[in-house]
Design a protein that fits this description.
- The complex is a heterodimer of chains A (329) and B (228).
- With 329 residues, chain A is an alpha+beta fold.
- Chain A has 2 domains: 211 residues, 3-Layer(aba) Sandwich (Rossmann fold), CATH 3.40.50; 77 residues, OB fold (Dihydrolipoamide Acetyltransferase, E2P), CATH 2.40.50.100.
- Chain A has 8 helices and 21 strands.
- Chain A has a 6-stranded mixed beta sheet with strand order 6-7-8-3-9-10, sandwiched between helices. A 5-stranded antiparallel beta sheet of chain A has the order 16-20-17-18-19. In chain A, strands 2-1-4-5 form a 4-stranded antiparallel beta sheet, with helices on one face.
- In chain A, strand 9 and strand 10 form a beta hairpin.
- In chain A, helix 5 packs parallel to helix 6.
- Chain A is globular and about 75 Å long.
- The two termini of chain A are 32 Å apart.
- Chain B has 228 residues and is mainly alpha-helical.
- Helices cover 78% and strands 0% of the residues of chain B.
- Chain B has 11 helices and no strands.
- In chain B, helix 3 packs across helix 5, helix 4 crosses helix 5 and helix 5 runs antiparallel to helix 9.
- The longest helix of chain B has 34 residues.
- Chain B is globular, with a radius of gyration of 20 Å.
- The chains are: A alpha+beta (329), B mainly alpha (228).
Chain lengths: 329, 228
């Protein structure tokens, strides 16, 4: 099956600032993909680009193998459903909004009501069909926006920060709605988030975005600064690196390759810093530690390692990692 | 003082006695202004929505031109159209000079930039998520324009009311192109100018009062629309 998207040499500039700079990106179809990045990393711009509501300055985008020139044709538009971070519902009832989407997609008038009901059923909001759109709560609004986007059965569902500003109950309901759509055959879901756990819980794969660029580096320990001859200066600490990428502005340290010890280690590891343990939390089947040592470092260890280290919050610890655990870009 | 008070009372008397001449003038004025407003709206609203929705080379220049045209003196429009419609003018064979059609054309031209500019403002002031949402739902050029007009209908209606208000209060072009012919092209403003110069102050005052009532009603409608 053809990939949902193939992006080549994409450059998106706004007000003389580069928002996105992607040399190559292929997004497989039939998967649930999380677009992970900090605020301002370019997630919304990429989602809008994938929805073709923004046009790129340079580069090309293929949608299911078809090169998109400037605008989507009707058939291509019908393959994409988009839910904005703060969805906008037009005046009228919930059903009016869904029926409008169906009308714009060229669905026959006789089918509107049934399809709108089906879409609302998928997000468990059938009872809200006749409610005015401007009376919905934040969570309901997002689910109605999803119902509106999936009413015409697109092949791709794009969601920009779907879980932001929602309480746990609404997040769970929203996750169910997204999973329900993603479980259907050949449906692709792409959602942006800055929450790594959310991404891991829902997605088959993640795309990491830093300052408009795609990176394979894990984003748990991401720092910004500048390269200074074998060192990367974050402004708060200097980290030894092996790469000679002199124009690098970002540094990431793999959280699985950091060693935590109560005393400094005698080893060849070039990076060793004293710190204080500030957080212990579960992350799937592993444990995540947060250690303050100038910058906040996240470390993933096994529950067994935690037990043998006998760590408590506030303990003084040492962090050690090799220069090869560091990626700069 | 008594001259003014007596004239005012006579003017009120003319209004409440439903003087046929006065109401014929009012009817002519209103029908010409409504026609001009509708003609201008047919072009200005889609043009304004299109301009607000699209990015193109020369957009800023066009915006400056529209702003300039908004403050164009009405007599200049009257003068230019007089040159076109007079017997020796290039469109003289159409026989439009001193007809209501000529006044409608002049007033439509006068209010077109006002209505187009207000439509652009209405669309630009709409929720910034409106257009991306409609595009993502599948709206294309025609349906997009239609739904944007629908969503901003109150602001666009305000543009219509403003245009009508400007048209009904216009005097320069109506005088030059209509000729103030009784029962045909005599509008409220041209009648006020003429009757006052003839010494018929009461008639001028009665028409002035009616014009004020119309202006007040329009402003009331406008503020009601703004509240909506």
């Amino acid at each position: 099956m053809k990939p949902a998207y193939e992006l080549s040499n994409i450059k998106l500039e706004q007000q003389h600032k580069t928002i996105l700079n992607i040399s190559q990106l292929t997004i497989a179809s039939g998967k649930c993909i999380a677009l992970l990045g900090e605020n301002g990393a370019g997630k919304t711009s990429l989602i809008n680009l994938l929805a073709f509501t923004t046009q790129t300055n340079y580069g090309s985008i293929h949608l299911f193998g078809e090169k998109i020139q400037s605008k989507l044709n009707k058939k291509q538009r019908r393959r994409i459903g988009l839910v904005h971070q703060q969805p906008f519902l037009l005046p009228g009832t919930v059903a009016d909004n869904i029926e409008l989407a169906l009308t714009l997609q060229g669905v026959a008038h006789s089918e509107l009501s049934d399809l709108a009901q089906q879409a609302l059923k998928q997000v468990n909001l059938v009872e809200l069909a006749d409610q005015p759109a401007n009376t919905l709560s934040g969570g309901e609004l997002k689910r109605v926006a999803i119902a509106r986007a999936i009413a015409y059965q697109p092949d791709i569902l794009l969601l920009d920060e779907p879980f932001s500003h929602l309480d746990q109950r609404h997040i769970q309901q929203l996750e169910q709605s997204i999973s329900h759509f993603a479980q259907q055959t050949d449906k692709t879901v792409i959602f942006s988030t800055h929450d790594r756990l959310q991404a891991l819980a829902l997605a088959d794969t993640t795309i990491n975005l830093v300052a408009g660029k795609i990176t394979a580096a894990p984003l748990l320990n991401l720092y910004h600064g500048k390269f200074k001859h074998h060192f990367f200066d974050t402004g708060k600490m200097e980290i030894h690196v092996t790469s000679e990428l002199t124009n690098a502005q970002h540094l990431a340290v793999d959280p699985n390759q950091i060693i935590v010890s109560p005393q400094p280690l005698k080893s060849s590891m070039r990076n060793s810093f004293p710190g204080r343990l500030s957080l212990i939390s579960e992350e799937g089947h592993a444990i995540r530690l947060a250690i303050e040592c100038g910058e906040r470092f996240h470390v993933i260890i096994s529950p067994e390692a935690l037990a043998s280290l006998k760590l408590s919050l506030g303990d003084a610890v040492w962090l050690s990692f090799k220069s090869t655990a560091v990626t700069i870009f | 003082m008594s001259y003014f008070v007596d004239s005012l009372l006579a003017a009120v008397n003319l209004i409440v006695s439903f003087d046929a001449d006065i109401y014929r003038i009012v009817l002519t004025s209103v029908s010409i202004s409504i026609s001009a407003t509708l003609c201008a709206a047919l072009l200005a609203i889609p043009a304004g929505v299109s301009m607000a929705l699209n990015r193109f080379t020369g957009k800023a220049t066009l915006q400056h031109l529209l702003n300039t045209l908004m403050s164009m003196p009405t007599v200049v429009i009257g003068l230019l159209l007089y040159g076109l419609f007079s017997r020796l003018g290039p469109l003289g064979h159409w026989g439009l000079l001193y007809t209501p059609t000529a006044v409608i054309i002049a007033e439509a031209i006068l209010i077109f930039p006002i209505m187009m500019n207000l439509t652009i403002t209405a669309v630009n002031s709409a929720d910034p998520r409106l257009v991306p949402t409609l595009i993502s739902l599948g709206a294309r050029s025609y349906s997009l324009t239609l739904h944007v007009i629908r969503a901003t209908r109150f602001a666009i209606l305000a543009a219509l009311v403003t245009g009508f208000g400007r048209a009904i209060g216009e005097v320069g072009a109506a005088m030059m192109l209509g000729g103030n012919i009784q029962g045909f092209t005599r509008t409220m403003t041209t009648a006020i100018a003429l009757e006052t110069s003839k010494g018929e102050f009461e008639l001028g005052l009665a028409l002035g009062l009616l014009l004020l009532i119309i202006a007040f009603s329009l402003n009331f409608a406008l503020s009601w629309l703004n509240r909506s």
